[in-house]
Design a protein that fits this description.
Layout lengths: L2 H7 L9 E3 L8 H17 L2 E5 L5 H15 L3 H5 L11 E3 L16 E5 L32 H26 L15 E9 L13 E4 L5 E6 L6 E4 L5 E3 L6 E6 L1 H6 L9 E3 L7 E9 L26 H13 L3
Parallel strand pairs: 1-2
Antiparallel strand pairs: 2-10, 3-4, 4-5, 5-12, 6-11, 7-10, 7-12, 8-9, 8-11
Helix pairs in contact: 2-5, 3-5
The chain binds 2-oxoglutaric acid and fe (ii) ion.
2-oxoglutaric acid binds next to strand 5, strand 7, strand 11 and strand 12.
């Protein structure tokens, strides 16, 4: 069965998000890697979301970043506004409550965030290729206000992008491509990371004003850490039911975004999701959006276009897509 045919077969509504064990991700045995790729392929075509265990981001790195996020969001608003994302190029820095609107029918997301992109660990001299239209330095809160924040956030960023890089060969195998297919398209770790804080919402909640409104992510895939013990994330299935994706201890969520949907002409699903915090307490999450290098054109991958499945998307570069989505989300509403 070719990719288009198996994509059509998978249109049944899922009822839960599968859990995938990454233990054999770097196995020497190609049969083990091929088996893992089959499991991933099913999740990508049917759900667009899966949990991963044995992801190898150390627990201490997660704990330190979680603690740093809490310290940052606890700062007085005027300190956070010094690094308002509107002052930076490409929306780096602090994103105040209600300033983003992921769902165009919504009235603003009930979350505040801090967003940044690649930079070397302090002390490293590693250089980077040009980011073109997505270029822009990170802006950080002062070290006096949140000691250790920058270092903790960068540790997590580098651990998560290492995980992200190691997933591309698996996605390539899942698409029937050589494992190295994405190597030259993902040299730069074009990944944006966000720390998010969702205040609780109680009583009758207006569907237009929730933690993060219904949306798809924009890059190839997202690596999402959710605070343990708090249900908030929901994923939309083909029957328009919201399926809960609660945090599962020891796992991260991986969800596909628009760049993979565009590259595969919709065979890999960029699934709609949202988050609502009705837990009564604050909730934190950490998404890292891992994309193709910003100058890469998202031409459809061989085998994903046919007469029954004509090209669905206008072709653009990865950076053009991310930039246009950022502008739409933060342009005021
Ligand atoms: O906080 C979450 O669980 C989801 C966040 C999300 O979907 C996003 O930032 O794109
Ligand atoms: Fe998302």
């Amino acid at each position: 069965m070719n990719l288009v045919e198996s994509g059509l077969e998978k249109n049944k509504a899922f009822q839960e998000v599968p859990v995938i064990d990454l233990q054999n991700l770097n196995s020497e045995d190609p049969a083990q890697r091929a088996y893992l790729a089959q499991v991933v392929k099913d999740a990508c075509m049917r759900v667009g979301f899966f949990y991963v265990k044995n992801h190898e981001i150390p627990e201490t790195v997660i704990d330190n970043t979680f603690a740093a996020a809490k310290d940052f969001f606890d700062l007085p608003l005027e300190k956070k506004m010094i690094i308002d994302h509107k002052r930076s190029s490409n929306f780096k820095g602090y994103i105040p409550l209600l300033s983003g609107n992921n769902n165009p029918d919504g009235a603003g997301d009930v979350q505040e965030g801090f967003e940044f992109g690649w930079e070397p660990m302090q002390g490293s001299s590693k250089a980077r290729l040009e980011d073109g239209i997505m270029a822009g330095a990170n802006i950080w809160p002062s070290e006096n206000d949140v000691p250790g924040f920058r270092n903790a956030a960068l540790q997590y960023y580098h651990a998560a992008t290492t995980l992200g890089k190691s997933l591309f060969p698996l996605f390539a195998l899942a698409l029937g491509l050589p494992e190295t297919f994405f190597d030259d398209k993902t040299q730069n770790s074009a990944a944006l990371m966000k720390l998010l804080h969702y205040p609780p919402q109680s009583g009758p909640v207006d569907e237009r004003t929730i933690g993060i409104g219904a949306h798809t992510d924009w890059e190839c895939f997202t690596i999402l850490w959710q605070e343990p013990g708090i249900q908030a994330l929901q994923v939309l299935n083909a029957e328009h039911q919201w399926v809960n994706a609660p945090p599962i201890p020891g796992t991260l969520v991986i969800n596909l975004g628009d760049q993979f949907a565009r590259w595969t002409n919709g065979i890999f699903k960029s699934t709609v999701h949202r988050a609502i915090n009705r837990s009564g307490v604050r909730r934190y999450s950490i998404p890292l959006f891992f994309g193709a290098d910003y100058n890469v054109r998202l031409d459809p991958i061989p085998g994903c276009v046919s007469t029954e499945r004509p090209l669905k998307y206008e072709i653009m570069t990865a950076g053009e897509h991310v930039k246009s989505r950022l502008q739409a989300t933060y342009s005021g509403h």
